Request: fold
Amino acid sequence: MILSGSSDKTIKLWDSCSYSLLTTVFHHLSSRRGVSCCVWSPDGTRFVSGSDDKTMIVWETQFFLEIATIITIDEVDCVSWSPDGTRFVSSHGDIMRSIMKVWDAETFLECATLSSPNEEISCCNWSPNGTHILSGHEDTIKV
Reply:
């Protein structure tokens, strides 16, 4: 399965063999720019979508149902699951106030906030063993 988020505020699920569209969900409706990111959990049973409407939505994949909505203080730029599926990290903000937040994947509570003053974080990802988080900036990558 392939998951996509779009500027038209939709999340689409595609068949990865035939590339045919399986379903479409309209969400993040208060967004100006649509769905900025969506990412599968490692076990494929859930995914998270993020948007400039300052929300992340956790979905279950069997029936495409919303499990939780997490309201953040800044636009959501990127989300990445930890390899063991117990946490996910999100990046937010702009050059003046750029942060990453680590979330518990069961309680949806914030576990940690990591800041990067004066550097906009455009993307984030876990290391394969789950011990480090990478952050991508305009011209650097940090661990």
